[in-house]
């Protein structure tokens, strides 16, 4: 018989919590990495009814809450409305997120989230049992950095989706967190390696200095490990990549020219960091960040 020793029997710390803000700080995406899917699923159900929450999605072990910034006090009720996000407020490059909950939901709102990686500081009330509890965590304000990549392989060797993930994983750090990786199915053009798939990487960066270092390091790694002369790498700093959706739709339905892709990138605020023919597919990948289940389906539509 094994005797179990638990340091904190009534707390399951979240792995990490991040906040991505739009250009005006009117909207944000709260991204939570959970260590317990059951608890995260319960929270997702209840938090989705919070007045400031606009949309909730699950991606692997991540729950992503799209919220309108502000403060709307919650009326907590056992079982039916037991927990939620009460406030998301941006100030001085930091984001304060206030959670509230009853009973076990209060533990999740306080101790569990306060101990997550990415939290700068926190304030919590006592929780557990039958208590109503509230907790505020403060995390760095981040902006979304999207990197589209295509054509790093040849018919003899390589796989772009593998290389891009491995590079992103190595560059993941506190200043530039690696958030998601999507394979994007494109129109099967004649010049494809095999499956005609590009990749988009999503990062959350704290400032422009960290962002530029990240991009330099990605390009350097691609130059080192790519086995193709046609590698394309593009970058977009955007909350939703809406300006590229029409291009992506075109690229997933027909064969486009290199000249058209380069002109589109220039006219829609996309920086080209490697200008091989892979730019065509790399550009089309950008709007599919954090949508890996949909991006692999040829006729899927972006919201």
TrEMBL record:
Gene3D superfamilies recorded for this chain? 3.30.70.2200
* All residue ranges annotated as the TiaS-like TCKD domain in the record: 147-272
Q: What is this protein called?
A: DUF1743 domain-containing protein
PANTHER family per the UniProt record, alphabetical: DUF1743 DOMAIN-CONTAINING PROTEIN, TRNA(ILE2) 2-AGMATINYLCYTIDINE SYNTHETASE TIAS
What domain of life? Archaea
Q: Which InterPro entries match?
A: Methan_mark_11 (IPR017674), TiaS-like_TCKD (IPR053870)
